[in-house]
């Protein structure tokens, strides 16, 4: 469950984030957006979220299940998978809250380590992100953090990349695909680690023609690997000189539509155990904010990047070792 409030005020942590080319910590700022197409998109977000809530309530309590909703909840609380997912959600949200990115690649790395298939890891992660990415995206829109040109440049290519990724997960055997997903997550872990030792300079010569291919690649890798949209798209655009505030807002708003598309496309190939994992991820994320705030106050961003990058890399290396050990 991804919960973000961008802290874009002039505080000591933000120049450090800007120098390293990663998103700042979040808080709300007041610059209302009035673009009609973006307004329609925000209404669509709310309609989708309300529809999903009603669907979940119907399936849980009114869908003609043999067991009652209360019994399902009780069984879930006694399932070790739920508590494992809760711990994963807690860790992933702490990392995302402190760095402003890496929720997907962190949760997917851990889920793969505990035996989830690539499709299950990606599907559960994206389902857990639907609500929070929607709220985050609309918040950015209402506060003027969405650049409509950048948003629409990201939207369709990102969705197309996501759909290609779901096709790959749906057609290739999970056991055969898992080593390659672990290798991708290892690369992403090393990429996050490298951010601790790189400094960027804002440039004015921004090439908008590169945005669509970047979004296509980001959507593809985000889906197949269970995460990576933020580290790939946001950090690349910010590193290229795009305004951090509108870049993060636009990427987050586009991420909601990518997340809904991926979650919908993967829903048909996942079994009911995905909801146990999703519940654990969401509930774990709800309790993570205080820990993320503590870490942000007491550790420098560079130190955090080294710790997180090393953690993801080590877990992915372990997943690679385990995967190849079965061949």
From TrEMBL:
It is found in: Membrane. Signal peptide: none annotated. It holds the Pfam family TauE. Keywords: Membrane, Transmembrane, Transmembrane helix. InterPro entries: TM_pro_TauE-like, TSUP/Inactive_protease-like. It is a multi-pass membrane protein. The chain crosses the membrane at residues 40-61, 82-105, 111-138, 150-169, 181-200, 251-269, 275-296, 303-324. One of its GO terms (cellular component) is membrane. This is Membrane transporter protein. It comes from marine sediment metagenome.
């Amino acid at each position: 469950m991804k919960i973000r409030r961008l802290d874009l005020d002039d505080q000591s942590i933000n120049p450090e984030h800007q120098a390293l080319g990663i998103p700042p910590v979040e808080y709300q700022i007041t610059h209302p957006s009035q673009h009609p197409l973006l307004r329609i998109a925000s209404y669509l977000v709310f309609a989708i979220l309300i529809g999903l809530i009603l669907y979940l309530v119907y399936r849980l309590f009114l869908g003609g299940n043999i067991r009652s909703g209360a019994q399902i909840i009780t069984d879930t609380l006694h399932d070790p998978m739920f508590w494992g997912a809760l711990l994963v959600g807690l860790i992933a949200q702490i990392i995302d809250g402190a760095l402003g990115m890496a929720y997907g690649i962190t949760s997917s790395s851990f889920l793969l380590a505990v035996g989830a298939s690539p499709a299950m890891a990606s599907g559960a992660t994206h389902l857990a992100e639907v609500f929070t990415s929607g709220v985050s995206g609309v918040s950015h829109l209402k506060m003027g953090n969405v650049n409509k040109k950048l948003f629409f440049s990201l939207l369709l290519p990102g969705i197309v990349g996501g759909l290609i990724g779901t096709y790959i997960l749906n057609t290739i055997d999970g056991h055969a695909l898992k080593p390659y997903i672990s290798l991708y997550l290892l690369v992403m872990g090393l990429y996050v680690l490298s951010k601790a030792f790189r400094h960027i300079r804002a440039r004015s010569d921004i090439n908008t023609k590169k945005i669509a291919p970047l979004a296509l690649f980001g959507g593809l890798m985000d889906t197949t690997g269970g995460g990576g949209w933020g580290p790939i798209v946001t950090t690349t655009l910010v590193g290229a000189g795009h305004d951090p505030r509108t870049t993060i807002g636009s990427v987050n708003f586009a991420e909601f539509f990518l997340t809904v598309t991926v979650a919908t496309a993967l829903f048909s190939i996942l079994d009911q155990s995905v909801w146990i994992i999703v519940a654990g991820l969401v509930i774990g994320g709800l309790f993570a904010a205080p820990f993320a705030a503590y870490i942000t106050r007491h550790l420098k961003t560079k130190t955090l990047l080294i710790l997180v990058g090393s953690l993801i890399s080590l877990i992915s290396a372990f997943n690679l070792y385990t995967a190849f050990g079965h061949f």
